[in-house]
Amino acid sequence: MNRIFSGVQPTGNLHLGNYLGAVRNWVRLQDDYECVFCIVDMHAITLWQEPAALKAHTREVAAAMLAAGVDAKTHILFNQSQNPDHAQLAWIFNCVARIGWLNRMTQFKDKAGKNRENASVGLYAYPNLMSADILAYKATHVPVGEDQKQHLELARDTAQKFNSDYGVEVFPLPEPLILGSATRVMSLRDGTKKMSKSDDSDYSRLNMTDDADTIHLKLRKAKTDPLPLPDSAEGLSGRPEAANLLDIWAALSDGTRETAIARFAGRQFSDFKKELTELAVAVLGPINSEMKRYLAEPAEIDAVLKSGAERARVLSAPVLAEVEDIVGFLRA
Ligand code: AMP
Ligand code: TRP
Predict the structure, then answer these.
(1) pLDDT value at residue 182
(2) What are phi and psi of 186, to 5 degrees?
(3) Region 214-242: what's the mean pLDDT?
(4) What residue's CA is closest to ligand 2, atom 4?
(5) What CATH class is the domain 210-293?
(6) Is the distance from CB of 6 to CB of 44 less than 8 angstroms?
(7) Any catalytic annotation for residue 138?
(8) CB environment 220-236: b (16+ within 10 A), e (fewer)
(9) Which ligand 1 atom sits nearest the alpha carbon of residue 18?
């Protein structure tokens, strides 16, 4: 069976964009792939993290994934730092990947900003750790968004260079898995901006931890325009908020923008928002309460992650042993 590896950063404030753009897609992959889902705390510290917040966010992401339907018994869910094989393989890849390759990474340039001299070495080497995440499991497929495609290319280049430098065929070249219609959820306050955890206004997003009353309130306050909803896609041009709310309805109902337009053509926003709220509460409500249940039992989450890490290591240890032997590390 093909194996998926996917990583998610332990950042707080998981919102509808994270759910529709990432978490929900992973849940669906479980039917067709053997999945290794990893909360990448080691990647997170390439930028400063408050230690207590890092732990809390790790648990929050785990809770969200479990609540959304990740099956941590059949598949694997763990936090990266609990399997030291990632760091071990990353060091070997630090010695395989070339500085010139890393210099081309646009995410480093974005995240390091103007003061590059002051960025952590980890931020620069980040893509090598990501290659190690994937290749420590010989994963064949990696679900990635646009922003991570360049890193996956680098993982493929690294796998290939390792194979050719040592004259072996250890690593498969992992394939990107571009999932369905990429849902790009926009802010509820400004339909031209991405829904984001870093937006100052909490009214700009539906959080995965919002209860029914909060969902209700935020959607009621969501920005609209004075016109009724259009009867064709062309009618959405210049109406980013209308387009976004229809797209959210479409994603939550597993439909398309077209089915949403057909359903709400000519109706008023007030009317549409009522249905959208009902749908959002129906989909997010159960996830929200399950997530809260997990967060009230941190020991339960920790046990899931520990067991996941142990099972992850069962998969990565033989790969590491094989790689270390190829490289020439002596083992008695
Ligand atoms: P981030 O929180 O930005 O690190 O993103 C984590 C995951 O959620 C990534 O896979 C993103 O592609 C996805 N994501 C974040 N924001 C959105 C959004 N507004 N719409 C769709 N997907 C998103
Ligand atoms: N770099 C990814 C991000 O910022 C997270 C990540 C780490 C990842 N390791 C991975 C994604 C391996 C896919 C595969 O979103």
Answers:
(1) 54
(2) -100, 165
(3) 97
(4) 9
(5) mainly alpha
(6) no
(7) no
(8) eebbbeeebbbeeeebb
(9) 8
Spans of all domains in the chain: 3-183+298-327, 210-293
Class in CATH terms, 3-183+298-327 = alpha beta
Cα within 13 Å of Cα(185), Cβ side: 22
The tokens for 108 are 């480093």
pLDDT of residue 321: 98
Ligand nearest to the CA of 194: 1
Query: Where are the alpha helices (H) located in 69-181, listed in sequence order?
Result: 85-94, 99-103, 106-112, 121-135, 149-166
230 lines ligand 2 (CB under 6 A): no
191 neighbors 243 (Cβ within 8 angstroms): yes
User: How does pLDDT run across 172-209, given as a tens digit for each residue?
Assistant: 999 999 775 556 899 999 999 999 998 999 999 999 99
Residue 273 annotated as catalytic: no
Residue 50 exposure: Cα atoms within 13 Å on the Cβ side: 6
Q: What percent of the chain has pLDDT over 70?
A: 99
Residue 222, pLDDT above cutoff 70:
yes
CA angle in degrees (0–180, nearest 5) for 281-285-289: 160
Mean pLDDT along residues 212-230: 97
